[in-house]
């Protein structure tokens, strides 16, 4: 039986019905404005909680990080949760075929093979080469916001910037991108524990439509290759390494992760800084502090609040004897607020230097697009603060329902240059 790494001090896992009720309330409240207080209470009561169905729930930073890296905890049965949703069998079968061949749900060696094909597009050098194009897009979108006082930042900027950036990276024709934002937003509802049947139906329809689109576009790229990631997926260097369903699943993953999570990171960044005006002023005075501020937003209000792994082989972890097939729920955002790892974690501190947050996960499933997301937010802040004379909310913000992706549905903004 495998063991957790010896240098990790894990909490002793235990059953606690009251703590489990708290966990369920946190996960199932679609309008929870502040889940972080609940995370603190859950960590205090049962930092390694065994639920009635045998799921291990982790809230300490050390345990979360160790679980993300542990070779006995991989991808597998946590995807089975989709099978329990109110989805017609035929539609579910089609969805599962793509999900099960996605990089997000693969283990080595398949995960390594899939990631290797696209990883060259996410090197630091290649991402940095995108800076001029990203800057031009940011300036254009900021101009549009400034012309429409009270415009919604989420639809007018936060959704549109990642669509443009990811569209360029993948090689999606500009004229095809208009509906991507809404389709990806619909598709993202699949990660929400609270999604009802109608929401899930829209999500599956959006996923199927995007899959059909990319299947056709990949066929076009075979005949008309260009300097883009989709052409690389069907190019000579990838021949024999990817099946058709893996190509489509990879395109869907890069599109969804690149648009939805980055868009909510942009919204969370602006909202956090507007609620901390001293930090905003400090960044105006010292733009060199922007990268650190982005890392602190990632820790303080991450778009991705939790992750999951499946036990692949018998393992002792966090004091629990785990069997293959059990699920481990990793509360990333709770780990980001662990006082054993971060000094004064409830305080937003753009000067925080030791900031090993878990918002991009860790281990082999560390977010492939982390560098690109960071660059987009950094360029946004650099251009916003260097060009604007004032930026302020123009009304009440509206949170996106759900905890699977934490962000905003609406954020009216007045921007002046």
TrEMBL record:
Per its UniProt record, what SUPFAM superfamilies does this chain match?
A: Cytochrome P450
State a single Pfam family of this protein: p450
UniProt xrefs under InterPro entries: Cyt_P450, Cyt_P450_B, Cyt_P450_sf
Which family does the entry's similarity section mention?
A: Belongs to the cytochrome P450 family.
Output this protein's name: Cytochrome P450
Organism the protein comes from:
Actinoallomurus oryzae
